[in-house]
Amino acid sequence: MTDMEAGILEDLPEIELISDEGLRTATIKAWALALSKSIFTRVRDIPGEANPGIMVMRRGGQDIHLRGVTKLALASVDYFAETFPEAVIDRDVIIAGGLCHDVGKAFECDPVNQARWKADASLVGRPSLRHPVYGAYICLTAGLPEAVAHIAACHSPEGDNVKRSLECIVVHEADVAWWKISAASGLTQDGTIPDHFAKMFEPRNIRSSTAA
Ligand SMILES: [Fe+2]
User: CA 96 to CA 101: how far, in whole Å?
Assistant: First the structure.
């Protein structure tokens, strides 16, 4: 195992919960590929933000977000599996999809790319590819199944143009809940909440002892 792969497992220990060995390996491979094409060497070094400069967490990197979304999504799966055992939800796809849904942020949040796009957006756009699009490219290149690439591509508003899979719905709802609850709890930096969220609530003050 390379140092980069060991770092990925350390930052995203829920990878071990994926029961299928091939899916587990491809999940690590996807993150290793994304990081190797970026300035980042660890998942935890990618800033904890929904989009560059938007919903910027007071503390915690992208690893905290990915683990949180995966845990919320798994809680949904476990609840429905227990209460409605007739509902068929793929737990492995949820875990791999939860951990890889933002794999494209290694590209979109890369400060080198950000500076390039900001310098002249007329050349390749700003950003050229949002993280869902780039993330789908990474997932397919790394050998992850279509079901996981679909979650990377369509967990965001990009997915409003298609019918989402059941697993994508679960991750999408967990992702929105994670950001909405974080922002309403006052965990995001002042002035970084977009209007469509800001009109829904007034962020509560966090405890001063843990304030960043
Ligand atoms: Fe996310």
Answer: 8
- CA of 71 from ligand 1 middle (Å) equals 12
Give the CATH number, domain containing residue 61: 1.10.3210
CA of 197 to the centre of ligand 1 (A): 15
Residue 163 belongs to what domain range?
3-210
Structure tokens belonging to residue 168: 């994508």
54: which strand partners? 51
The rounded Å distance from CA 137 to ligand 1 centre is: 17
What are the tens digits of pLDDT across the range 124-169? 999 999 999 999 999 999 999 999 999 999 999 999 999 999 999 9
Q: Taken in order 205, 210, 211, 212, is the CA torsion positive or negative?
A: negative
| Nearest C-alpha neighbor of 114 from the set 196, 164, 53 | 53
Query: Can you give the pTM of this predicted structure?
Result: 0.96
Nearest to 198 by CA among 49, 55, 52: 55
pLDDT tens-digit readout, 41-88:
999 999 999 999 999 999 999 999 999 999 999 999 999 999 999 999
Please tell me the total count of domains within the chain.
1
157 alpha carbon – ligand 1 mean position (Å): 11
| Other CB atoms within 10 A of residue 17 CB | 17
